[in-house]
From TrEMBL:
Belongs to the glycosyl hydrolase 20 family. The active site is at residue 330. It holds the Pfam family Glyco_hydro_20. Residues 166-520 form the Glycoside hydrolase family 20 catalytic domain. One of its GO terms (cellular component) is plasma membrane. This is Beta-hexosaminidase. GO terms for molecular function: beta-N-acetylhexosaminidase activity; UDP-glucosyltransferase activity. Keywords: Glycoprotein, Glycosidase, Hydrolase, Signal. It comes from Capsicum annuum. Its EC number is 3.2.1.52.
């Protein structure tokens, strides 16, 4: 009897599978996948060479529209597999009409990014309707991805209604350990907007170099940058911030302190403890920093606050975003302990946590007085050694960014009432898996067959796009707790990255997060959709490359040309 029932059962599974595939994958797709994408009768329509876009006049939307019109008319994208879609018989598409109900909403955290888009079957116009100009920008990107070929065609009869699940969708880039030119940062922002990412978290300074020109403290970059040509002037910053506005991308500056400040010592040795010391002396002494590049601000010295306040003021003056990132990660006790004034403080029963508290007490009110919400790395309250009492950091004014212990720290932070940005090192760190960078590493000199460090960085292995795509940043949270998770950021720490590899380290893995945070990683039935996403991501990666973004391949080209043939059908069980 068994044989009799199995066949229809498998057949019906097969039918379900086929209909699902049809339901989720179209001949032309948009990345990140829109929340709803209806295209009941796939057809295409020629785009008129006279194609026009009408739109409300707006300081940032107007240049965006010009840019997209140019792209739409000149891109002529050729899909890896030519979409098999018939042309409609109607006259070419002449107009895209954009309407925005509220043109005054500024680009800020939580701004309404929803839009709807329809392309005509017949001879009428295409429409984008959005709540804000920022939503209209998302709609323009979607429209541009529906355009292809030469002569240019557009997917016809499409209706899309779209909005993101998470409001904060970012990329963090460290420009201290290695330098990136302004053009690189602009290209990053451009690629982010293609992926509907909306926050460039700029980790500007660290122990290694201080590339930001702070007008009231010119010596910081003057002496702390890697060189005169490796600095960001206020004019550079303005260019980057404005470019971000024209791409719907906010720029969130981070000045990491009080640790990670060795580079400040070039200008002000007196305010930095353990500056320029060998990071981990032989013998039993503890390391003075998590990696080579030592130095921490000394919270006991008044001069420290003079300099820090100038830096805060000038940075906030340059960056209009309502969020300011104050760092506060990885405070190293041994580094502070090298300083005689701190030794005296500790000898009279002061604790290092009190030192951090002093630093926070003297700097947080300053930032808040400038009308900013502060983001700190989670260490400020979760570090094992040096941390402050959460009662000093009001959840109303402070957002926590988590990077350790995956879902467990996220849970701990939201249950303490904080809004959280997730950048778990186990999932979202793009630098992992490129080996360690310290020299004289004897792990690499072991006989063949023994562990040679496995080429692992501290956070190895490499985070694949699937690892990133499948991570649920609200895993294990109640619905109410999940509401405090405002979004996530992939992070590229730059010990082993600079402009030469930036694109390929970030893309298309950041695209994987972009889709998960925009519309999720599951299909209509609630199943994870990574299998279905593979071909779409490959196609999207090729399109990004054609647009000048050096995204790395995720599969042999053969796999898309032979759809499904590279998949495994053997489930892995743990
Ligand atoms: C484009 O506009 C020009 C001038 O208005 C007109 O002569 C031409 O027919 C138009 N072409 C199309 C394809 O609509
Ligand atoms: C295109 O049109 C032809 C002729 O009407 C039809 O046979 C074919 O199935 C259509 N192809 C698609 C993909 O709709
Ligand atoms: C966002 O804008 C859309 C229009 O695109 C509107 O329907 C929706 O209610 C707005 N959402 C919120 C939360 O205001
Ligand atoms: C296009 O035509 C189909 C039916 O052929 C209809 O269901 C769909 O709503 C139309 N789409 C638009 C955008 O007019
Ligand atoms: C403070 O920031 C909020 C939002 O970020 C803004 O609405 C408000 O106008 C600002 N207030 C001042 C005094 O600048
Ligand atoms: C530090 O604490 C110890 C034990 O609590 C106490 O005996 C000592 O007097 C304290 N020293 C100072 C300088 O406060
Ligand atoms: C920091 O400020 C809080 C609240 O005002 C206060 O209770 C605490 O004593 C201060 N800590 C230090 C080390 O100054
Ligand atoms: C390399 O490490 C060894 C210990 O493993 C040490 O004796 C030696 O001095 C180091 N060499 C350099 C150049 O730092």
């Amino acid at each position: 009897m068994r044989g009799d029932t199995t066949f229809p059962f498998i057949l019906s599974l097969f039918v379900i599978f086929i209909t699902q595939t049809i339901a989720t994958n179209y001949p032309i797709n948009v990345w990140p996948k829109p929340t709803t994408f209806n295209w009941p009768n796939p057809k295409s329509i020629f785009l008129s060479p006279n194609f026009t876009i009408s739109h409300p006049t707006h300081r940032y939307l107007t240049p965006t529209v010009y840019r997209y019109r140019r792209l739409i008319l000149s891109e002529h994208y050729r899909h890896i597999i030519t979409p098999s879609i018939n042309l409609t018989s109607s006259t070419p598409l002449q107009h895209l009409i954009i309407s925005v109900s509220d043109v005054t909403s500024p680009l800020s955290h939580g701004v309404n990014e929803s839009y709807s888009l329809s392309t005509p079957n017949g001879s009428s116009a295409a429409y984008i309707t959005a709540g804000t100009v920022w939503g209209a920008m998302r709609g323009l990107e979607t429209f541009s991805q529906l355009v292809y070929g030469n002569p240019t065609r557009v997917a016809a009869g499409v209706y899309i209604s779209d909005l993101p699940i998470f409001t904060h969708r970012g990329v963090m880039l460290d420009t201290s350990r290695n330098f990136y030119g302004v053009d690189d940062l602009l290209r990053l922002i451009k690629a982010m907007s293609m992926n509907k990412l909306n926050v460039f978290h700029w980790h500007i300074t660290d122990s290694h170099s201080f590339p930001l020109v702070v007008p009231s403290e010119p010596e910081l970059a003057g002496k702390g940058a890697y060189g005169n040509e490796m600095m960001y002037s206020p004019a550079d910053v303005e260019k980057i911030v404005e470019f971000g506005m024209e791409h719907g991308v906010r720029v969130l500056p981070e000045i990491d302190m009080p640790a990670h400040t060795g580079s400040w010592a070039e200008a002000y040795p007196e305010i930095i403890t353990c500056a320029n010391m060998f990071w981990w002396p032989a013998g039993n002494s503890p390391a003075l920093a998590a990696e080579p590049g030592t130095g921490q601000l000394n919270p006991l010295i008044p001069k420290t606050y003079e300099v820090v306040k100038n830096v805060i003021h000038d940075t906030i003056a340059m960056f209009p975003d309502s969020l300011f990132h104050g760092g506060a990660d990885e405070i190293n006790s041994a580094c502070w302990n090298t300083d005689p004034s701190i030794q005296t403080f500790v000898a009279s029963n002061g604790t290092q946590s009190q030192l951090l508290e002093m630093f926070i007490n003297n700097t947080l009110p300053e930032i808040l007085s400038l009308n900013r919400t502060v983001v700190y790395w989670e260490d400020v309250i979760l570090s094992a050694n040096v941390k402050v009492d959460p009662s000093l950091l009001s959840p109303q004014h402070v957002i926590m960014q988590t990077w350790n212990n995956g879902p467990s720290n996220t849970k701990q932070l939201v249950t303490s009432g904080y809004r959280v940005i997730v950048s778990s090192a186990d999932y979202y760190y793009l630098d992992c898996g490129h080996g360690s960078f310290v020299g004289n590493d004897s792990r690499y000199d072991q006989p063949p067959g023994t562990d040679q460090g496995n080429g692992g960085s501290w956070c190895g292995p490499f985070k694949t796009w699937e690892t990133i795509y499948n991570y649920d940043i609200t895993y294990g949270l109640t619905d109410k707790e999940a509401q405090l998770v405002i979004g996530g950021e992939v992070a590229l720490w730059s010990e082993q990255a600079d402009s030469t590899v930036m694109d390929s380290r970030i893309w298309p893995r950041a695209s994987a997060m972009a889709e998960t945070l925009w519309s999720g990683n599951c299909d209509e039935t609630g199943m994870k959709r990574y299998a279905e996403a593979t071909d779409r991501l490959t196609e999207w990666r090729y399109r990004m490359v054609a647009r000048g973004i050096g995204a790395e391949p995720i599969q042999p080209l053969w796999c898309v040309k032979n759809s499904g043939m590279c998949n495994t059908v053997h489930p892995f069980t743990s």
